[in-house]
Amino acid sequence: MPEESVMTADETSSENGAATSRWWHRWFRTPGELRELGVVGINMRNARYLLPNNPRRLYELVDNKLRTKVLAEAEGMTVAETYGVLRTPHDANRVEKFLNGREAFVIKPTRGSGGKGIMVIDKRVGKNFVKPSGAEVTAGDVKNHVSNILAGLFSLGGKRDYALIEYRVQPAKLLTDMSFQGAPDIRVVMLHGYPVMAMLRASTKESDGRSNLHQGALGIGIDIATGMTVRAIHHGRPVTHHPDLGIDLIGVQIPQWETILQMAVTCQEMTGLGYLGVDIMIDESLGPLMIEVNARPGLAIQMANGIGLLKRLEPIVEAHRNSPAADLAEKIAFSKKYFRAKLPVPRD
Amino acid sequence: MNAQAKLLIAVALLCAVGGGLAAYKSQMLGVPFWQDQKVDEWLVEAKISFLATGRDVKARLSLPSKAVDQNAGQESGSLGYHYDVEDDRGEFTAIWSSQEREEGQALYYRVRFKEGPVSGGEPTPANGEPEAPDIPNLPGSLGTAARSIVGGAKGLSVDSDALFVTFYEQINSANASQEYVLVKRHYEKENLANPKIAMGIDLLGMAGVPARLSYGVRLNDEFVGQQPMPLVEYFDGAAWKVRDPMEPSKILDGRDVFVWHRGGGPLLDVTGGENSKVTFTVVKDRIPLSRLTDLRESPLLISTILALPVSERAVFRYIVLIPLGAFVVVVMRNIIGIPTLGTFMPVLLALALLEIKPVQGITMFAILVGAGLWFRFLLSRMNLLVVPRVAACVVIVTLLMMLMGVISFQLGMSVGIKITLFPMIIIAWTLERMSLIWEEEGKRSAFTQVGGSVLVAVCAYYFMKVSQIQYWAFYFPEMLLILLAGILLIGRYTGYRLSELIRFKTFSNA
Fold first, then answer.
1. A260 CB within 8 Å of a chain B CB
2. Where does a domain end: A166, A196, A213?
3. In terms of pLDDT, which residue wins out, B248 or B488?
4. Which residues in chain B are contacts of A144 at CB distance < 8 A?
5. Complex confidence, ipTM
């Protein structure tokens, strides 16, 4: 393995001129500067990493959450327990039968993307259901939601879909403390089975329980080597505290980080996709749960970490070429060794 | 061979083939490469269509004497028909005949001539003394009104030109005298094809000026399959003159109008067929006639578009523009990074804008989408399933289009009628997608995407509107191969989008 070329990955970035501030940075950055920072754009992600590494036929494995879950369970991974799959309008009328009297549950489309169409129910009050925001919905509303899912309203390309009822994750307290409502999840981006970058997405009042960064959610960068949060951004700008809750976001240790990394690498192995993002939630009692695999992970993760993806993807391409047969442990060791973040200087 | 090399070879090949064919056409065949090098020639094609009834068929089409006299290029297209031209003292008629024809028939007659001020409507000496005009038999008060009009006009006008101008100006005028209104109403009730023209001809006849119907063609290549334009031919004592009754005081300009038929006889006469009609298509051609045959007989397929009948060719005027719009979409999305609602929705919008002017078009689009969106939100309260909801949107969009057409027509804006050019299904889907995005990602996201689509459509419109580009696309369709090469290259572009330079402006190293 050519160590020299790999060693230079993160070190050079902060010394060079791209960090110096210029008048135009208020409005834009030049392509040269972005290249120097190693920022990956959509075109580059698609042409260099998605298209060559993710064959079309494998997308079905991850676009359909039922199939992903079956694969993951076969690998012995912990996933949210499936309470039932609603397949027909007839099933939509009998949601209660699938619920079996359960208090809390989640209904989601099996082919949804970007968190669309997910309905979370925390408890029941009489005949009604209560959402995490405190809003009550009736059994009729739930049925309508299921009908919309079945009609393909939330699925990729509007195809007919199934509705999945599953266990409502009770996120670890450490994580709910960092999020205004909503359940924070961890996204790990992988290339050829090497963990590239990780971030925690936490919602704010503005993002309304959702974890989409462009809707105002927080992106919190996580150090691959230690599982410690190192940086947080809100609307692209670095922040240190949660804008609504005021809690410190930096220097938080994500629990069971080792398990999370192994889970992510296993997801790559079981799907065969070269470039992917794995979404994981940490349950208070069950630990890390694999939620979904995304074959088109976004680019905001590099903002959250303050590191251009290219600075990590290129060394991985090199490592993969030199030792294509590396196993899970070797890959994790590689990423931990070379992608160790400069831990933040303790404040106060 | 890696993907990069394959791509470069494909691009080089496409450029070589496209550029080579274009060079061959412009250098060897003499098709002007630049638009202003044009050889301005009009190609007017008459298309006769009728339903044959199974008997022997004979079709007679009156021909412009100009075409036959001056040896302007003329040809007829008629598979399986016997064709000849009859000469009746300087008035020419094309005759097609065939036995036992059935179903729809189409006959073509093409004329080409140089652009110029001569329209063919100039004074021509009469073949002998014209017959005395028929005095129309108008009953009672109508007759009195008509006689009063004629008497009044004769008192003021000295010659037949002046009478023609007086009559038609009054007929066209919105505030004509009571007598005109009375007589006009009578002619409109008679269900004539052209009540105003018929009234003018009768009034001229009562004033002792022989007049008859004549037909012309508008020299404007935006009309495909235009109806013959009714003109009036009148006798001023020495010669027959043709003028446009809509613009009575203007002498016909050969750059706007070509007089196809004079002499008072029927323009078209078909025996053995029903529903016969003649339509005209006009194309400004830039290829010298002498070269055209070379092109048609050229073994290279490049010339196929020129071998088509003119009316069919005119369809391609817009089709060849679609790749240009698609190219703009590719550039805007992959290089600039403007989000759009649906990939090629902007192209369809841009095509609609080509017909309607952009400002009016976008205003109508905004009203349509705004109103449609409001209805869509009302619908969403009913929790309908997806397909019925989109279908409901289609119904609402249809009604809105009709409503806007009627309202704008009432307000005197004829542009409102053109609203039907918006592709309705596209609008219905736009509404559906937009309202979903509104609910899922907020209104900001919805407006960004719709605004992006409109912006891309406007850019595509201005690109497609450049007449030099239209000219290349139409006369050098092989240049689309070069466009294709450009699209392939963009397909491998891995650099930043312009929008990403802004998106990542706050990027800072950890």
1. no
2. A166
3. B488
4. 383
5. 0.80
